[in-house]
């Protein structure tokens, strides 16, 4: 199943530009509130298997928002691909990679404009994103996927100047400017994927590919990552988890490469679609 956020309304996709409005089709039982939908994900999935697909609605890309617009938490992980660990100059470890938050006010849909902060060194990081469908705390590795509603694409956009140029390393604020956490274009359940543990992901700037890897290159695979984080943190239905980026970020290039106003960032993951961000000059510049 694929489910999109169309003008705030959960919509089961029947095509790339059409689908079934959940609230209307369920006579209000599901779809009125995204958080409630994820808290009832199991019963909703059972209902959705028999939904009548004759009454479709049409939509455009401009109507799409984040497929989880009301997360309690956005959890993110850095240095979770060995190739990215190497390009960043760190040593790989079997200890849980750095884990941090991107504040919910930075969350956006798949196709948005992103303002480049004044004097910003704005970097890109394409990532597989998980959306939680069942409360997860101290989850066993073998049970981890049962707590995931589905997956989607995310960009962990970061102002590296704010992150590293000051007296202290900052993890959360440089990643939480408005629209610095675009997610989408829709949620895809794991049963729709050829291999949920081995998906190709790419990132391009104005058509030039800058990242090209596979999720099988993760140090902590999805199930192990969720299990390990849940040893400490309780994850709630609708929560969003970024799982790390592979090699090819701007900070590691020689010379370093930063996103500029007028550039278009395209991110794609196999089986999940793609999303695009246009970078614009900040009004405060």
From TrEMBL:
Which SUPFAM superfamilies does UniProt cross-reference here?
FAH
- One Gene Ontology molecular-function label: hydrolase activity
Going by the UniProt record, its keywords in alphabetical order are: Hydrolase, Metal-binding
Lineage top rank: taxon: Bacteria
Return any one Pfam family short name. Answer: FAA_hydrolase
**Signal peptide as annotated in the record:** none
- Entry-linked Gene3D superfamilies: Fumarylacetoacetase-like, C-terminal domain
Which InterPro entries does the entry link to?
FAH, Fumarylacetoacetase-like_C, Fumarylacetoacetase_C_sf
User: In what residue span(s) does the Fumarylacetoacetase-like C-terminal domain sit?
Assistant: 74-277
Q: Is Hydrolase set as a keyword in this record?
A: yes
Give the protein family.
Belongs to the FAH family.
Task: Provide the protein name.
Answer: Fumarylacetoacetate hydrolase family protein
């Amino acid at each position: 199943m694929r489910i999109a956020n169309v003008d705030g309304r959960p919509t089961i996709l029947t095509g790339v530009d059409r689908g079934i409005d959940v609230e209307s089709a369920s006579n209000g039982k599901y779809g009125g509130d995204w958080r409630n939908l994820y808290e009832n994900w199991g019963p909703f999935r059972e209902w959705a298997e028999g939904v009548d697909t004759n009454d479709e609605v049409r939509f455009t890309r401009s109507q799409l928002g984040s497929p989880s617009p009301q997360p309690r938490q956005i959890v993110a992980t850095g240095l979770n691909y060995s190739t990215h660990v190497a390009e960043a100059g760190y040593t790989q470890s079997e200890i849980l990679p750095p884990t941090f938050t991107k504040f919910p006010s930075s969350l956006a849909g798949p196709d948005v404009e992103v303002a480049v902060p004044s004097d910003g060194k704005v970097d890109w990081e394409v990532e597989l994103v998980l959306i939680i469908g069942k409360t997860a705390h101290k989850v066993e590795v073998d049970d981890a996927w049962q707590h995931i509603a589905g997956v989607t694409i995310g960009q962990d956009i970061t102002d590296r100047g704010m992150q590293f140029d000051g007296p202290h390393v900052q993890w959360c604020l440089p990643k939480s400017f408005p629209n610095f956490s675009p997610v989408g274009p829709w949620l895809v359940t794991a049963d729709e994927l050829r291999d949920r543990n081995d998906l190709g992901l790419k990132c391009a700037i104005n058509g030039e590919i800058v990242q090209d890897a596979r999720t099988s290159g993760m140090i902590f695979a999805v199930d192990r990552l969720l299990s390990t984080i849940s040893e400490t943190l309780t994850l709630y239905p609708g929560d969003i988890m970024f799982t790390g980026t592979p090699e090819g970020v701007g900070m590691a290039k020689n010379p370093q490469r930063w996103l500029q106003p007028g550039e278009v960032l395209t991110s794609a993951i196999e089986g999940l679609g793609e999303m695009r961000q246009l970078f614009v000059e900040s009004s405060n510049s």
